[in-house]
Amino acid sequence: MAHIIISILLLICTFNEITETKYISTNESYWRARTELQDAEEKMHLGYKLELTSKEKLVNSKLMEAKHAELKHGLETPVDFLPSMNFLKAKSGIEQSKVFEIIKKIPKGAVLHSHDTAMVSTEFLYNLTYTNDLFICITKNTKEIRFKFATEKPKKTEECDEWNLLSELRQNKTIVDELNANIKSSFTLLVNDPDVVYFDVNEVWKKFVSIFLTLDGFLNYRPVLEDYLYQVFKEFENDKILHLEFRGTLPQTYELNGTVYNEVELVGIYQSVVKRFQSEYPHFSVKFIYAPNRKVDQTTFDQYIEIVKNLHGNYSDFLAGFDLVGQEDLGVAAVEFADKLLKLKEEINIDFYFHAGETNWKGMTDENLFESVLLDSKRIGHGYAITKHPKLMEIVRDKGIAIEISPISNQVLNLVKDLRNHPAAELFSTDFPVVISNDDPSLWGAIGLSYDFYEAFMAFTSYNDDIRVLKQLGYNSILFSSMNVAEKSRALVLFENQWDSFINEMIMET
Ligand SMILES: [Zn+2]
Fold this sequence. Notes:
single chain, alpha/beta, TIM Barrel, four-stranded parallel beta sheet, 52% helix, 11% strand, globular, binds zinc ion
């Protein structure tokens, strides 16, 4: 009984202390302390350290007016707040946003996380289906589309009974509209009600993987691949991007005469398109990360090792490093390959850029983050599960390992519904090393990086965080890229020139 009475007395005392503090704090010192606390937090935010020129301040006020209007509208009508709805539904709303209009004009530096066959606008991809000699089939079991370029009808395969020349099918007026609609929908995740159709992460990944299979026979035809890649660079450059580091699985690429290119030859094809593009846009640079599927056995992994050694020997400048891709939750844990990766690092000193922590599970899939840190990954793809690992966070911050955040990808793949709740909001609040990337823009009808920049700016930043965040993201993308020191300084000069032109153009407009 005495014990209970003492506890109650203690509680009362504590309560009195709280009331006392509250009473004292409603005077001047409270408000001073409040302002100091707010300032101290604001100083920790991404971009805070940058100072704005008077011209930048003018442009900033225009951006902030638009941002505050959208936030106010969102507060009054939460259902309209674009980062809180699935991008597949929000896309057209974003295209009407004033903030987005400005973001499209902003120089963004580099895209450091994008995948080989998912980078172009869906319209361009669709138009490529009018290329000659394209055959199409509908798979027997899954009713998915497969493509193949050939001079004569391809033979039956396990999944395809019947191939037809697409240009001939398109002559048939009774089926052409439905056929074209099917082709378009086979290239993207776009549906009317994504929250119902893709009810969980595995369901959306099924469609995600099927799109890549559809694109396989189509984009792996060398002439189409070259047109595709050139257009990717064009769209990225047009979206104010000056450097790209894309990941690729290096699938078998073919010619009509039956020639099939090996991995080293394919990277040579990539590089030739880069060179052709640079003759028109010399400021644009590209690097490549070899990133095959993670869901493989040890024998296949050994083959990856041989390929990457070969690539490293042939393309030491163009090849940025090595990674593993695919749905992390259902893939093989990186720890299974740790010994081989350590040996590889010792042998050829290659850099790693691992996908890790693209998961909502704790103490399970997110353990891949340990391999990323221990194997000295230069950046971490997605990596948002890091916020559940305080020790790893310390190391990652100290070593300057950037987390590659792809907001739209995480939302569309059902990992986070409302982007305001994305762990990146915490990373932005503490000026953690982060970059914003687009992952697979063509799969959700996005172009370039502006859509992801918009989502990040509207969902991850605080009410008063301003244009400095966007400028800092541009700087980060260059600093955390795989470019060497000379390449980085050149890119920084280019970025700052682009930035000054953007500021001047915005001022001219007002
Ligand atoms: Zn990715």
